[in-house]
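#lab-general

N.A. 3:47 PM
ok so I finally got the sequence cleaned up, no stray characters, all 223 residues accounted for. can someone with queue access submit it? mine expired

B.Y. 3:52 PM
send it over

N.A. 3:53 PM
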Amino acid sequence: MLSCALAVACISCNSPENKEAVTANDETQGLPVYNIPFSATSTINKAQKKVLVISASPRRGRNTDLLCDEFVRGAREAGGSVEKIFLDDYKIDFFHEEHSENPDTVMTEGDQAPMIVEKMTKADIIVLSSPVYYMNIDGQLKTLMDRCYRNKGLQGKEFYYITACADREESTAETAIFAFRGFVVCLPDPVERGSIKAIGMGRKGGVENTSYLTDAYELGKTI
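B.Y. 4:20 PM
back already:
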């Protein structure tokens, strides 16, 4: 059954080698801290890295999307081959039982998840981005993550995270980072490279003329 298959996946992701003990501190508010390797410099020895930026928000040109654009600008200046996709442009079907049997090939009518997942497998670096909605990430991105189940082509990727939230507490932004890491920790040999957490950004275009845009641009240059 599907529920059993998903349960197995959850158990493997929560194994001791993949996760540190739960900690209670001001930054994570008791959320688990995943033991994902971090590197300030790239671990991928390629002259031109393939970068896929996934902008997950139903609001094009808003704060999270603008941060993605600046990351893209920096990554291209650093020599990366960069593609940005605005996730709301695509139809992504929910994870169903048939996807657990053959997730790479099963495709319902109009479903574009396999195409996006293929882009992820071909990328060296993946940028996950989403605003904080109800203390979590955009539902479209979570559905895409579910569709990556059992995919063997996501090994050894480097990940960046971008989020923006209206709340001025960094702990609120951490809920999105936690969701990103909950996906990444389930993949083989991932490496984290950095994150942008833009807080207090409830107004449309609030990140404009702030240091967050500069930070995103500079982070993109680190690919």
